[in-house]
Amino acid sequence: MIGQRLNNQRLDHLPTPCLVLDQAILRRNIAAMAAALARHGVPLRPHMKTAKSIDVARLALAGQPGGITVSTLAEAEYFAGHGITDLLYAAGITPQKLARAAALNAAGADIIVITDDPDIAAMIGAMEVPPRTLIEIDTGEHRGGIGPEDGALEALAARLGPALAGVMTHAGHSYAGRSIADMARIAEAERTGITRAAERLRGLGHDPRIVSMGSSPTALHAAKLDGVTEVRAGVYMFGDLFQAEIGTHGLDDIAVTVLTSVIGRRPAERRLLVDAGGLALSKDRSTESVPVDYGFGLLLDAGGRREFGHSVICRAYQEHGVAEIDPAVPFPDLPVGAKLRVAPNHTCMTVAAHERYYVVDGGQTVVAEWPRVNGW
Amino acid sequence: MIGQRLNNQRLDHLPTPCLVLDQAILRRNIAAMAAALARHGVPLRPHMKTAKSIDVARLALAGQPGGITVSTLAEAEYFAGHGITDLLYAAGITPQKLARAAALNAAGADIIVITDDPDIAAMIGAMEVPPRTLIEIDTGEHRGGIGPEDGALEALAARLGPALAGVMTHAGHSYAGRSIADMARIAEAERTGITRAAERLRGLGHDPRIVSMGSSPTALHAAKLDGVTEVRAGVYMFGDLFQAEIGTHGLDDIAVTVLTSVIGRRPAERRLLVDAGGLALSKDRSTESVPVDYGFGLLLDAGGRREFGHSVICRAYQEHGVAEIDPAVPFPDLPVGAKLRVAPNHTCMTVAAHERYYVVDGGQTVVAEWPRVNGW
Fold first, then answer.
1. What is the ipTM of this complex?
2. Residue A18 touches partner B, C-beta closer than 8 Å
3. What is the reported pTM?
């Protein structure tokens, strides 16, 4: 059962703005990641922070052990409710969230939490039924975690006691890479950092069964993953313009686009006004820092094809997007109401404004409608 | 009845991230706008695109005729379901949305639509029961609409026939103003443009009963509103850092903040990691272009006070925000789990990620929970 099936509804009939998910591309991206990790014999714990959909999770879990990563406890509750119980909640846990995770675990889930804080470690260690806990390691992103050589590791492990299940890291700074060689170099630093922390724990008499690393760029481009027990990645499922620019995948591998309608025409200024603005697309401007700047997204035709060259959404008001048409292509002679699509800068942000995916399979017929879990 | 009442729950107990709405500030902002327009004897048609809440709409409508502005048909459906039937849908209508608006009107709503397109005008004019329609006029924003002197006005009016109810404009370029004098100048251009279009229609034998203009800055700072029949504004209800920087209101007039928890501490780097990231705050960077750049938001204490100087969210990952503490203040000695608040850059974008407001009344006790309508 994959979501609600629709009877051959055409994209043309959907209310705009909305998300179109091409499952042909999604399946290809999932297969590419599975193949990349299979080379190393390391399993994937897909990060559902981007897709937030049980239907997508089922596809991403094909051939994998069955555990997932989540970015919110709302996701944990949702996926546990759909039978996925092995959940890694990949943001530093707080006392309040620890109570919520423990309640979920008491109801049948098996949420793994992470920490880099001695007070929280002591609190977890003192619990009657603590969740499995990973110590967060910083392998260069400088967001959360302690360094692999940090002396605090010993005290954290001691305080956690039997709750200690291993270590995890996220080389989010791989997003600052600009080539496959950059990704491979950052992946190796991520791997050596996390395996070093695990080795230190073993030296202290602990048993870090989980040695978890990952980001889409480093998961796809790691040269080796020796000593790593699982990899986490999420954005690879959908892709986006930013990931295409940094070399994670190609422009043809973007599975999610925003369907939009023309709501105004200014041929003399070579501009179209569309009903996908800052809410439908997000205000993310991550392509500002990569070779090709796509504004707030790249304009595609209703079939999702790159028919308009470098025509981008140059301004994003709340519900209005201004599409500036590339001078190298003819001005699209489209009436008000005509459908277009926009490829997102940063898919995690764009999809978050929407409640569901309208799923196509390479064409323009909606074959399913898949809900998302938003909020916290 | 204003939303679900909560029995003296403390902010401390709320799951984070979430929205805190201080109704004391909200009421003050609403009173300030009402007073500004009362000077001119012009009524307000509050724009609900920011608040998207029936509870806020009821406050904003006090002493006003009762019509509102909406930015999506989802809002129109929601507010009509709550008994507000006089609705101006302020984005260019498409054939598909025209059908949806007509269906709502047949069910008892009275949605006013806008257009600047001759084909759409002809389609509306040919409807058996057309919605009241306004011609969109461009008074300097250059987003939608025709110019006040544009020859196309005559044909649009003729095609609309009896559906023509008037003209509307939005001087969104007032956001590029940087002083009250700027706002007043843009407001006067907005007023002269929209009244000129109305005058031309009268000269053609039409009766433009609605002459609608507005944006929060121009509504608050217009020197005169002669010839205007209503003003639209929305963001003034909540305010934000951007509006404070351009002079629409003061920093103490921001009614909505994001409640967040500390999830990591890096005292040596003078950084705190919080659980309000790009989704909870939005990736809007509008304060980049104003005198004071607040990153992704200004850090406040749990009571909403500016206790940390210019400490801002300098990086926003999906669920992680990095707060950089102002060197001029002591590093906040807060444990993981401690609550803080973040004032938003652009409140319309920030609140859109959330399903509800937790309402306080000047203190830290939750007195109500008000739902929002999101999506399209």
1. 0.96
2. yes
3. 0.96
